[in-house]
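Regression test case RT-17, inverse folding.

Input:
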């Protein structure tokens, strides 16, 4: 239930940012874009690791797709701007 709630909140955040971009494609949204990227990748990482744990030993076996999902989720927090960089962008937009 907790993961489903986090996933839904993340989806709504992404849709909100996408709607703002659709309204005005020239508008720059560094805070909102960074928040969406940060939240989406962190939730994906959390869900993948939780899924691996739920699968027990099978989660670590290369015969199953879970290992690949975990790798993709982990690298998503790095490429396109690390989670730390996204946090810095968000903080700067608040003047911190």
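Golden output:
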């Amino acid at each position: 239930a907790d993961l489903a709630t986090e996933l839904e909140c993340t989806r709504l955040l992404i849709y909100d940012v996408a709607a703002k971009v659709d309204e005005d494609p020239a508008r720059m949204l560094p805070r909102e874009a960074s928040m969406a990227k940060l939240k989406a990748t962190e939730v994906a990482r959390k869900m993948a690791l939780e899924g691996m744990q739920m699968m027990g030993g099978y989660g670590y076996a290369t015969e199953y797709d879970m290992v690949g999902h975990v790798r993709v989720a982990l690298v998503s927090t790095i490429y396109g701007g690390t989670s730390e960089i996204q946090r810095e962008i968000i903080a700067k937009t608040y003047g911190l």
